[in-house]
Design brief:
The chain has about 260 residues and is mostly helical. The protein contains 12 helices and no strands. Helices cover about 85% and strands about 0% of the residues. The longest helix has about 35 residues. About 15% of the residues are buried.
């Protein structure tokens, strides 16, 4: 009988993920060609388009560092191919981990490590929860996104006190909903939360004191990387998991002598 790990890192899953990602890349190329053609039609010069491409590439590389750090973290839970797919399309580290934990809790597991030692059906359940949960957002954005954005902007631009703070209040209310669930999962989760706040605050303070605007783009990436290594390197076995995940992500090989 196949195990959780067998399915999570199976060849067929790698193939399916690569096919899906190639489709997404092709879609991006199609939209790029259409947008470039339209830009030239309305009078935007090729020189301007070159500057836009250069700036876009720069702004894409910086956030991708945080995504790589997230990939290493998430791959330890659900394997490389599915983590790769989720973070390449519509997923995020915080949502994916939360969805995986909710799925495993519903199946009766108290920790992800217990789920990872179970059968392949557990991984299948996690995949379904992750996929169906995020699809709702895609459809809502497609059908009602414009109306929602216009409504929020209208409220934000109003002169009333409520209108000025509604956007900030919404985000501040949303974060505790996601954070509280994670904090009280155990000592490690609490340490991760406290350490993350400390590192992010330190980096933000450095940006303000030094004026290094470039560092502001790396706050999330540095926080993820430092917390990941800091928390997981307390135990010898966890140091091995960290090293193995990094080796596998960047080489595609599983062989690493312990």
């Amino acid at each position: 009988m196949k195990t959780f790990s067998d399915l999570a890192n199976s060849s067929i899953l790698y193939i399916l993920v690569i096919i899906a990602l190639l489709f997404m890349v092709g879609l991006c190329v199609v939209f790029y060609k259409k947008s470039r053609k339209r830009a030239l039609e309305i009078g935007i010069t090729e020189e301007t388009l070159k500057r836009i491409r250069k700036n876009t590439l720069t702004m894409t590389v910086v956030p991708s560092l945080a995504i790589v750090a997230g990939l290493i973290t998430l791959s330890a839970v659900i394997g490389i191919p599915w983590a790769w797919f989720r973070l390449s399309v519509v997923g995020s580290v915080s949502y994916e981990l939360l969805a995986a934990q909710l799925a495993t809790s519903a199946l009766g597991f108290t920790e992800m490590t217990q789920a990872a030692a179970s059968g392949a059906d557990t991984f299948g359940a996690i995949m379904i929860v992750m996929s169906t949960g995020i699809i709702a957002g895609v459809f809502i954005n497609a059908l009602f996104g414009k109306k929602i954005i216009n409504g929020v902007n209208k409220i934000g631009q109003s002169n009333t006190g409520f209108g000025k703070i509604v956007n900030s209040c919404f985000m501040l209310a949303l974060m505790p909903v996601l954070v509280v669930f994670q904090i009280f999962q155990g000592t490690v989760n609490t340490l991760v939360f406290v350490t993350s706040i400390g590192i992010a605050y330190l980096l933000t303070t450095i940006v303000k004191k030094t004026g290094w605007a470039w560092l502001g783009d790396f706050v999330m990436a540095f926080t993820l990387i430092l917390v990941y290594f800091g928390i997981n390197c307390f135990k010898e076995d966890m140091r091995w998991i960290v090293a193995k995940n990094i080796w596998t992500v960047f080489t595609g090989l599983d062989e690493l002598d312990h």
